[in-house]
Amino acid sequence: MRRGSNEIGGSCIELSYHGERILLDLGKPLDAEEADARMLPPTPGLQDETDSRLRAIVISHGHVDHWGLAPLAHTSIPLAMGAATRRILHAAAPFVPNPFTPVDTIDLADRKQITIGPFLITPYLVDHSAFDAYALLVEAGGRRLFYSGDIRAHGRKGSLFERLLRDPPKRVDAMLMEGSSLGRLDEHGDFPTEEAIEDLLVDRFKPEGFVAIMASAQNIDRVVSVYRACKRTGRTLLLDLYAMEILRATNNPNLPAPGWPNLAVYVPEYQRRQIAKSQRFDLLEPYRAARIYREHIAETGARAVMLFRPAMMRDIDEADLWSNARAIWSQWSGYLEHEAGARLKDDLATRNVELEYIHTSGHASIKDLKRLASALMPRSLVPIHTFQSDRFSELLCSVTRRNDGQWWKV
Ligand SMILES: [Zn+2]
Ligand SMILES: [Zn+2]
Question: Hey, what CATH class is 13-186+362-395 in?
Answer without folding.
Answer: alpha beta
